[in-house]
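Hello, quick one for you while I still have it in my head. A protein chain has come my way and I'm curious about its shape. I'm sending you its amino acid sequence along with the backbone structure tokens. I'd be grateful if you could look everything over and explain what you see. Here's the protein in full, and shout if anything looks odd to you:
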Amino acid sequence: MRPDRGNEESAVAPLFGAGPMLRAAKAAVRAADPAAATRAALPEIPAEGRVAVFALGKAAAPMAAAVAEAWGEALGARLVGVAVSPETVRSIGPFRVIQGAHPVPNDGSEQAARAMLDLAETLGPEDFALALVSGGGSALAVAPIEGVSLSDKQALNDALLASGASIDEINAVRKRFSAFKGGRLAQAIAPARLLTLAVSDVPGDDPAVIASGPTAPDPSTLADARRVALKYGLGGPEGPRLALPTEPGAERATPVRYDPKARGQESFRYLPADRLWREASAETPKPGDPAFEQAEFKVIVAPAQSLAAAEAALRAEGWTVEILGAEIEGPAAEIGAKHARIALTRRAAGRRVALLSGGELTVTLSAGSGRGGPNREYALALALGLDGAEGVRALAIDTDGADGAPSVSGDPVAGALILPDTLRRVRERGLDPEDHLARHDSGSLFAAIGDDLRTGLTGTNVNDLRIILVDGS
């Protein structure tokens, strides 16, 4: 992991004092190794039937590869599956591999979800399904319901991401327009046995939120989705086309036990959008649904593990560590300004401390917004709040290696470094940091001074990592 200016870590550390942060960030990503966690969590090889693997998300490729390596020889032709990854992967054992896109789905994303549903619907009670789910799966695997096109889903996804809505709010809406999310994949897999191994990228490690919960019961309702759509104006003439309910009480559709494999019932995959808000069968499966009678869900990697690894690395280098919060959510600029005030308080008290935090921050985009992401916006707000204070350095990254908008060249950017001279170097280049923050253009600013961090895609995703080193001695 190194700043974009190209200096190796060994050169960065003595010159800028960033070495402890970079090493702690590396430790955090290593602790989230999805392949090792998958191998350790695999059950005994099923004695009979087919074993079908459904791998989706940013960690799909290494997780699927771990299964192919561990089970491929023993199962032979009994092992089948589909994997969708944001990266180009030539092959993974016997699995069909499809490249999707994140954060906005593409044709490959839809192709992957349809292929998984098709495979799921061939399974019987003698078969075993292994779902490998990780962050990013919401965009990498999409199956719009009848009457909703992929372009509609893309517009909806764009609008939700730009709205400032929380991840729970985003998922409540996305699930309503999907034949895959919100437990729908589990419905298609039933009555086969199902084990989900998940890499969590969400606060609280909620199975219903990780990748929009394709194999988990959905606690959100039609009414929740309608409130979110109305709250952020997603149904207006300027927003994406949403089939908002117009009939009184339409949003209060009662969940029913719905089996898409039962003869005489129409599969949800082909439910017309204009019936979405009116029919009880449009509701997602809830706890107690037959789809989950033979289903088990295990979180095998969580953000807390990575935060603990970063903490251990910093303590090993002699830092006292203070955890500001492991599951912080909210506007990136507000949290950055708040953490700057905390850092200055610790500095004024003469403390030498590392302030560590995780969670998932948000950025509300608007017309004319620039390039950037939550971690870089947090870093810019932090820099403005610190105002060049000596003895304070910081790092903010997304552990998947992709913080919002990529660079101009299209390369993913993980986050940014903050150093005591950050604002001076920014202004020497004639840039206005306050203006860049107001326009959500932190990406262009950090690229201009060479302090954006580019790790490449890491193959995992366990949320954001933020480190502030305060040396007030």
Remarks:
- Confidence is low (pLDDT under 50) at residues 1-16, 243-280.
- Residues 217 and 288 are 8 Å apart (CA to CA).
- The radius of gyration is 23 Å.
